[in-house]
Amino acid sequence: MDSNIIPSLKLDQIMLAHKEPPLISLFMKTHRHSPENQQDLLRFRNLLNQAKESLDKVFEKRQTARLIQHLEALVDDPSRSLWRHAKDGLAVLASNDGVHVYQTDYPLDDLVIVAESFHIKPLIKYFQFGADYYLLLLSMDKTKLMRGDFISIEELSFPEDVKIRFDELFNDFDNTSNVSAGTFSGPMHVSTVIVQRARTLRRTSLSTSAM
């Protein structure tokens, strides 16, 4: 996925307020697996065309050029990661300032609304129940950080310079003993990195920056 296209984990009310119209709220059902997900991008294009038609009826093209550019970036992303790693629903809230992308764990009805404010009702369920969670797994010799939702769970990767095995962190670590202790030998403790990684993943800013 393009580095500027980041699915959000939180609905930031401040971020959604005081946006200049036109504003587009686009919702659609997506699919996690092939071959069903191969049609998702085509359906998004069709919804985007509907949005363009609605904009043309009310606004001049100079007022919507950047808005359309942000939406088309989701289509033109060469990695297609947003579509290859889809969940059950996709919500896109777009303005001339940028685009906010949300992936939900429940299907969303196909819908496009052009208005002076964002339509967020279909997202209330997602944020009301806190769909995403993190799980820290500790064993005798290593640690893992997982991220899950209502449907799936995945292991998160750490930077290459982060040590996740205890025998790499402690010179005299013995994972065969009942009680293990050791002398810390590394510059960065894994628990600190886990906290930093979790904070990074909880970033609420998602956007395609102005191109």
Summarize it:
By secondary structure, the chain is an alpha+beta fold.
Description:
With 211 residues, this protein is an alpha+beta fold. It folds into 2 domains: 13-128, eRF1 domain 1 (Translation, Eukaryotic Peptide Chain Release Factor Subunit 1, Chain A, 2-Layer Sandwich); 133-201, no CATH class. Helix content is 30%, strand content 19%. It has 7 helices and 7 strands, in the order αβαααβββαβββαα. The strands form 2 sheets. Strands 3-2-1-4 form a 4-stranded antiparallel beta sheet. The longest helix has 19 residues, at 40-58.
- Our count of helices gives 7
Second rung of CATH, namely the architecture of the largest domain:
2-Layer Sandwich
Let me know the number of strands: 7
Helicity level: 25-40%
Order of helices and strands: HEHHHEEEHEEEHH
Query: Distance N terminus to C terminus?
Result: 16 Å
Task: Trace the largest sheet across and list its strands.
Answer: 3-2-1-4
> Structural class from helices and strands?
alpha+beta
Structural Rg: 21 Å
Which blocks of ≥5 consecutive residues have pLDDT under 50?
179-199, 201-211
Spatial shape: elongated
Comma- or semicolon-separated keywords:
211 residues, alpha+beta, Translation, Eukaryotic Peptide Chain Release Factor Subunit 1, Chain A, 7 helices, 7 strands, 30% helix, disordered C terminus
